[in-house]
Structure formats: structure tokens, C-alpha cells
Amino acid sequence: MWAIVEAAGWPIWTIIAASVVSLAIILERLYTLRRGAVVPSGLLAQTLQEYRRVGDRDELLQKLHGHSPLGRLFAAGLRNVHGSREVMKESIEDEGRQVAYQLERLLTSLGTIAAMAPLLGLLGTVIGMIEIFGSQNASGANPQQLAHGISVALYNTAFGLIVAIPSMMFYRYFRSKVDGLLVEMEAQAIKLVEVVHGERKNGS
């Protein structure tokens, strides 16, 4: 592996740095965007049970806020439970924008790496081509310098694509997953509003 890096020349280090950052983001997002951590199953039923038992006490709101992103939406809604249905929904939407920002964190960086990695590979290719042309002299081409220039060009192109392709795949995957999680969180939060206000309206 070290021999390949040496053959690829200094431009490969920019691609290696990009690959390390990309891998770190992918691992972090895989852990953070777990369905069970973002939209825990059964949280709506537990929240309604606790609300019926203790009401909108601060202890319940703080517990929900620190529980999960979905819990943050529930806490925002219950914090305004004594207002109208529209006020409760607006508070959930405001909190939802902050939750969405947290879920989408670092995805722009991952998309940037996916777009820039081929360009870094192209930079290495251009540098390799410069070395190839530089190997030409009055007595002909320098075989060693010519071979090194070809290595720089090909290895950087290949490594750039190797970094870009999985980065773009995970970027698209995470974007789709975040959109799906947000839709599900919104649906459960709206259900909470409807159930709570239905109970209040019926006096139960």
C-alpha cells in the first residue's frame, strides 16, 4: 500500500485526507441516524400514558427533550398544550426545524467531498501529465520519470473515484433516510396533538 502511495505522488495525500474525513462522517451518521435513536418505537404511547398520569409537568418535558429527537418534538408540543391546536402545532414545527438541522448535520460536508474527490484526482492526473511532458528531453524520454508521471496520473484518478463513489452513495442514502425520519416524526407529533386536544375537548 505504501508503495502505491509513493507511486501516486504528493497529490494522493489530499485524497487520503478527504477519505478519512468522509469515513468519519459516514460512521458518525450511521450511529446518529439509527431509527431506534431518532424515532424510538412506543414513545408516543409512553408519552400519552405519562401525560395522562402527571400532566405537562416539567419533569416529563425535560425527560422527553433529552430522550430523542422525536421526544424533543413531543416536549415542544406539550409545553404549549394549554394553547390552541394551531399554537401547539407551530411549536412542534419550530422545534422540528432545529431537529432537522441536527439530523442533516455534516451531510453537506459529505456531499462536498463526493463532488471534490474526482477533482482532486483530476489534479493529480494533470500533475502526472506535467511530469510526463517534463520527461521529454533532447535525447528522448526519461523512462523512469515517464513511468512515475503515468503512475501519478492513473493512481490519483483511481483513488479520486474510489473516494467519490461511496461518499456520494452514502450522501444520497443519508438524505433519503433523514427525509423519511422527519416525515415519520411529523406524523407522530401531529397524532400527539390530535389525541391530546381530543381528550381536552371531550373533558376526559
Automatic annotation (TrEMBL):
Keywords tagged on the record: Cell membrane, Cell projection, Cilium, Flagellum, Membrane, Protein transport, Transmembrane, Transmembrane helix, Transport
Annotated GO CC locations: plasma membrane
Superkingdom of this protein's organism: Bacteria
Pfam families cross-referenced by the UniProt entry: MotA_ExbB
A biological-process GO annotation: protein import
The MotA/TolQ/ExbB proton channel domain, residue ranges: 67-186
Main subcellular localisation: membrane
Mode of membrane association: Multi-pass membrane protein
Membrane-spanning parts: 12-31, 106-130, 150-171
Compartments (UniProt record): Cell membrane; Membrane
InterPro entries found in the cross-reference section: ExbB/TolQ_transport (IPR050790), MotA_ExbB_proton_chnl (IPR002898)
PANTHER family reported for this sequence: MOTA_TOLQ_EXBB PROTON CHANNEL DOMAIN-CONTAINING PROTEIN (PTHR30625:SF11), PROTEIN TOLQ (PTHR30625)
Family to which this protein belongs: Belongs to the exbB/tolQ family.
The protein's name in its UniProt record: Flagellar motor protein MotA
Organism: Chromobacterium sinusclupearum
